[in-house]
Each structure stands twice: as structure tokens, then as C-alpha cells.
Prior knowledge:
Blueprint (H helix, E strand, L loop, with lengths): L1 H6 L1 H9 L10 H10 L1 E15 L1 E7 L11 E11 L8 E8 L1 H4 L5 E7 L7 E2 L7 E2 L21 E8 L14 E7 L3 E8 L11 E13 L3 E2 L16 E9 L5 E3 L5 E4 L6 E7 L4 E7 L3 E2 L15
Antiparallel strand pairs: 1-11, 1-15, 2-8, 2-13, 3-4, 3-11, 4-5, 5-6, 7-10, 8-9, 9-10, 12-18, 13-14, 13-17, 16-17
Amino acid sequence: MEDLLRDGSVSNFTKKLQKIGQDDKLSQQDVHALFVSFLFVLYAVERLTGGPFYGTAVTLSVWNPQPNPQTGGIFSLAQLWVTSLPNTPVNTIEVGWQVSPTLYGNYATHLFIFWTNNGYQTGCYNLRCPGFVQVSSVIVPEMILPVSVPGGPIVEIIFTVVRNASSSPAQDPNTGNWRLILNEASAGQVEVGYWPGSLYTYLAQSASTIDWGGEVDTMLGGTFPLMGSGNFPTAAPGYVAYARNIQFVDINGLFVDAPIELTKLETWPSYYQLRDGYNPGNLGRYFGFGGRGGNVCNALVTESTRAFSI
């Protein structure tokens, strides 16, 4: 931390934050440097290990937690991760919704995708560099999404990432594209595009870990923003962000409900929490997540909060 403060890197990025009101968008190079090198990260995530896995599906409620760049807030999101962990350098496929005035130049909630094949040494948001192959003209990464109203209508999106799916994944190892399919109210089910298997080493065949949940990022000395709806999952129904109908794709290409016992990753429970359950009807395997955040120093943040092993 002292080295960063001494060399002025944080100050340089703070100047960029001050330009957000002018619809300034950071370059892919700036985004990578900012989001990987200068952040503290907290999670409220549930994890499934022990692959091989060939995809996942989850329904996420969509909210609009607004980070404040003036107090160091970079982004708040909810997403799924399909990864190669514990194999490193980590390969990831990531998709969900995100609020980031630093990245998008506004406070709206955006659809986003991300991928890396070398442990975040490099990576790509949305369509800002080659990699993801866009197919749909209706659903496009970075598009603005409608959001839920606390105590009112709840907006949901079904996110599906699946390898191939033309046949059993294990029987068709050579065309390892990972397809992205979204189902949302205005467009219905849409094939958005795919990550070519050729992008990856480990994910060229299968995934070994899947995560679902929320993440918030802030600058050194900043304040962690709201996650999800901004409420703990113990709040009343209609006021809580959630993931429901959580499934993984098995070796036969079948969608299977995630097990009751998933690994819970609450990196600072006084700020962000999880609360899970199972309902064989509408909710399936589900959990609520979120919280109000707080000051980085109060969280006694150490270098370990930047690791979360993905």
C-alpha cells in the first residue's frame, strides 16, 4: 500500500475518476490496471468444487447499487464465475450485471461479461477486445438493464453458460465453445454469443469450480459500496438480492440442481452476508446476498482480500 501511495499511481487513477461526469470511458488497458492492481475486493459468494463441470444456469435479481467514485467506489456486481480453480493460472468465464461509473461513465446497471486465461494478468471486459464472439443483435454486453424496485417489481435474468450442448460434453471434446444464453423479460431466451475453447488452456475441456454471488471493489482508502439491493439477506422479501434455481451441467450435459452444501465465501460478514436454502418449487437451490458496505480501514483490509483465489 505504501509503495502505491508513494509512486502516485492511486493519485493518477483518482484524476481519471474525476472525469466520469464527462462520459469519459477508460481504455481496456486502464481498466485492467485499475481493476487488478489498485483494488480491494470483498465477496459474498457460494462455490461449487469438484468438477468436471460443463456449464451452469442461475436466475439473478437485478439491482442498482451505486458506487461513488469520489469515495473510491469502483463497482458493485452480481455474477457467475466458471473457472479452472484450483488449476492455475486461472481461466475464467464471467457474466452478470454490474454498476460501475468508472467503467461505463454512468450509474446505470449494465450487462457485462469478462474472461481471462492467465490468472488476470490480462483479461477483457465485454467486447472491448477480441475473444468473445457476439452473435445476438438484441442482447449485447454493456447494454443498460431494467432494475428491481425495493418492495415493488423484481427484475430477474436467467444466465446460462454451457459448453457445446450439441451432445454430451464428454463425448464431444474438440469443439469446446462456451455458449452464453440469457433469458429476460423483454427479449425472452437469446443466444448471446460464445467464448471459443481456443481462448483457454484448462477451460478448453471443462471447468472445475463454479461460483455465484456478489462482488464489490474500491480504491485504497475508499469506502466499499452497497452490494445487491444494499440490504442484508435477512431483510423482508422484496428487499433482498438473490440467486435462485442454481444449477450446474454434468458430464452427460444435464442441468442438475446445485447441492445444499456449497462453500460460503463471506470475506467480511459485517459488511456483506449470505443466507441460503432450498425450495423444490419455484426457488430451487437459492441464496440471498448483499449489504451496505463500509470503510476499507474499518474492515481491516489486508492483501488477502484481493486474492479470493479467482
